[in-house]
């Protein structure tokens, strides 16, 4: 029999032989795809996929606030899950959802682009001054 399951804005169909297989299919879909954005609470979620070199990245993306949530997979059995805890077992903020913001970048430009470079104020060693008070560089 053909089973179609809708979770949020994602609809997935599969052929199954038994009702037990149908429930397993629907449960595994709901585990990952019946998700609200952990940052803004929106149900308007889409799937994302990127490939870089030999790695593949799957994620859920919020269409409202652009937050994303990584989906991890087991290469051996094909199962997928969302990481809810960090490597130390501590619960991740926003239930694993995050919005990309490069450090030091204002959010006004979408978090992308380059900011003007600011030269740091370096301390001047008094012993490095020339006799007339100028710094030798």
Describe the structure.
It contains 1 helix and 6 strands, in the order E-E-H-E-E-E-E. Helices cover 11% and strands 27% of the residues. It has a 4-stranded antiparallel β-sheet with strand order 3-4-5-6, covered by helices on one side. The protein is of the alpha+beta class and 137 residues long.
Low-confidence stretches: 107-130
Report the end-to-end length measured between terminal Cα atoms: 79 Å
**Share of helical residues:** 10-25%
Strand content: 25-35%
Order of helices and strands: EEHEEEE
Number of helices: 1
Largest sheet, if any? 4 strands, antiparallel
Find the count of extended strands (DSSP E, 2+ residues): 6
Cα shape: globular
> How big is the Rg?
25 Å
- For the largest beta sheet, what order do the strands appear in spatially? 3-4-5-6
Mean pLDDT: 75
Structural class: alpha+beta
List the helices and strands and how they pair.
Layout: E1 2-7, E2 10-15, H1 19-33, E3 45-52, E4 55-62, E5 68-73, E6 80-82
Antiparallel strand pairs: 1-2, 3-4, 4-5, 5-6
Task: Give the gist of this structure.
This protein is an alpha+beta fold and 137 residues long. Helices cover 11% and strands 27% of the residues. Among the domains are: 1-34, no CATH class; 39-99, no CATH class.
